[in-house]
């Protein structure tokens, strides 16, 4: 997108504001599809948790994507967006049996990641097909909070518990139709991913009625100039060969599934915020913006780097700034970052703001969450209105009748 387009959006819809470029989403979807064109049956299930706006879900559905969900609410959003129940896979963690049963009743595919729920669900519903999430005990991911396949992870059923798993399946006579893994996000080394795939293939041999094998996702996207990213094309070539060989050995053409989230939407997103104050201290120049980690928490939570551009003055000389927010505790987006000279009132643009940004926004400090805009076919379309004060208090119950002021108490005496 052009800087002028982003500035027009900030002027038209106000700031802070999230902007998503549909063309980038489509190109990423096609890139991943092409990387695995050698697979006969490929299914991409968009990870709704990355960006769950219903208009984004409708876009994914129009591309032929399925939907990866982690809550019953995401399942219902998917159904509302037009996804067929059978194209939705539900992979929760630590939820109740009741929620899983409710999702199953909606027709979504079920993915279970612990032995306790597997036994309970299989005992009650042996005729409902179930996918099993395996923990391959492979450390992958760019941050400890998003590395989920290691030996001490809360996610998945340990490969060392396969005998116990098989006993449950045998006793309940349940139908296992899929095997799944997800090692973590921001995977750099495809050899680690390929190693984990071999573990998944070996596990899959224990089940005779599989329809698909799901390799999760976690592909890394570049966050700054010169940044490393997952080589999707190389991974596609190598994993396609391994998968096709496995299908021949298994005796059946299975579906190869992935659950891309960040890969599809991260680079499509921009977060725009206005500079309120430029403040010079003894050693630092702060650019304080009209936002905080209530709107974009990734730098504070994950140590994530987001390229920041001054789109109001893109040709100005570069100076060092620490970009901070208005929350009443430390909320630093960047420290001593080289940015084109900033003046109060300028609009800063945070790149890679499509994944795990708005979806993790909050009303901390009783601030409103921003608007969302989709840039589609050269036009800006509002897809979420900015919150207002009525939204903030909508579900609050004012118990004013049970309180009295000190003056009222004194008068009673």
TrEMBL record:
Domain Orn/DAP/Arg decarboxylase 2 C-terminal, residue spans: 18-354
Reaction it catalyzes: meso-2,6-diaminopimelate + H(+) = L-lysine + CO2
The EC number(s) this enzyme carries: 4.1.1.20
Cofactor(s) required, per the database record: pyridoxal 5'-phosphate
Biochemical pathway: Amino-acid biosynthesis; L-lysine biosynthesis via DAP pathway; L-lysine from DL-2,6-diaminopimelate: step 1/1
Enzyme class: lyase
Positions carrying N6-(pyridoxal phosphate)lysine: 49
Domain Orn/DAP/Arg decarboxylase 2 N-terminal: 23-266
Keywords from the UniProt entry: Amino-acid biosynthesis, Decarboxylase, Lyase, Lysine biosynthesis, Pyridoxal phosphate
InterPro entries tied to this protein: Ala_racemase/Decarboxylase_C, DAP_deCOOHase_LysA, De-COase2_C, De-COase2_N, De-COase2_pyr-phos_BS, Orn/DAP/Arg_de-COase, PLP-binding_barrel
Residues holding pyridoxal 5'-phosphate: 218, 356
Pfam families referenced in this protein's UniProt entry, alphabetically: Orn_Arg_deC_N (PF02784), Orn_DAP_Arg_deC (PF00278)
Molecular-function annotations in GO: diaminopimelate decarboxylase activity
Positions of substrate binding: 298, 302, 329, 356
UniProt family annotation: Belongs to the Orn/Lys/Arg decarboxylase class-II family. LysA subfamily.
Biological role stated in the UniProt entry: Specifically catalyzes the decarboxylation of meso-diaminopimelate (meso-DAP) to L-lysine.
Oligomeric form and interacting partners: Homodimer.
Name this protein carries in UniProt: Diaminopimelate decarboxylase
Organism (species): Sediminicola luteus
